[in-house]
Amino acid sequence: MRRLTVNTFLTLDGVMQAPGGPEEDPTGGFAWGGWSVDYWDDMMGEVMTGLMAAPFDLLLGRKTYEIFAAHWPYAGDDPAPTADDGPLDATAQSAVKKMNDATKHVASRTLTRLDWRGSRLIEGDVVAAAKRLKQEDGPEIQVHGSGGLLQTLIPAGLIDEFRLWVFPVVVGRGKRLFGDGTVPAGLTLADSRASTTGVVISTYRPAGAIRTGSFALTEPTEAELERRRKLAKEG
């Protein structure tokens, strides 16, 4: 069975909307697009290169697909923003090639035409389609962005690994990875690294149900019992 992994940039307050630029997703009046751009360092580039080292497929929602399809097929023509304004370096060229060569599975109810090479439209129930994809032979399936799609995949328990890039910035509002419909669950930390700019890149894997406990005294004090009575009255 193939793994289905989530690769997501997040603000410290959990927002994943428009990390790459102001025009990426301004819906809902979101005014902070591009909040991830100023935090990149060499280590982050190395981690991203590692994620793309082995073959992978992409599973994308419609909005992220349209963002990617308007960028990656043309990215090789754009000079890299290097100090000497030189051509796209080997690492960037490799990323462009891998994104363009990957098979893209696209979940959309409105798209009828997919022009980006290697794109396949998912028809019917996306949860059933994702389960079928996982059972097929092939490389890892990566979800990038695709916040709306993730609100369907996460409650269905289809994610095998969360790779979360948490940036040291808060924006207050916006689309979140773990929305109101998220099913409570435990996670285990598999790996964590920090960049020189304060970005924490952590890998989490599902770990079953949340294990709860209590630091309260075995025998509650009268003050604690009164506190609980007050809470009960407040509803």
Structure description:
- The chain has about 240 residues and is α/β, with parallel strands linked by helices.
- It is built from seven helices and eight strands.
- It has helices spanning about 40-50, 60-70, 70-75, 90-100, 125-135, 145-155, 220-235, and strands at about 5-10, 55-60, 105, 120, 140-145, 160-165, 185-195, 200-205.
- It has an eight-stranded mixed beta sheet.
- Strand 7 (about 185-195) and strand 8 (about 200-205) form a beta hairpin.
- The longest helix is centred in the last third of the chain and has 13 residues, at about 220-235.
Keywords:
235 residues, alpha/beta, Dihydrofolate Reductase, subunit A, eight-stranded mixed beta sheet, 7 helices, globular
Uncertain regions spanning at least 5 consecutive residues: 79-87
CATH architecture: 3-Layer(aba) Sandwich
Tell me the radius of gyration.
Answer: 21 Å
Question: What's the β-strand tally?
Answer: 8
> What order do the SSEs take from the amino end to the carboxyl end, as H and E?
EHEHHHEEHEHEEEH
Helicity level:
25-40%
Give average pLDDT, whole number.
92
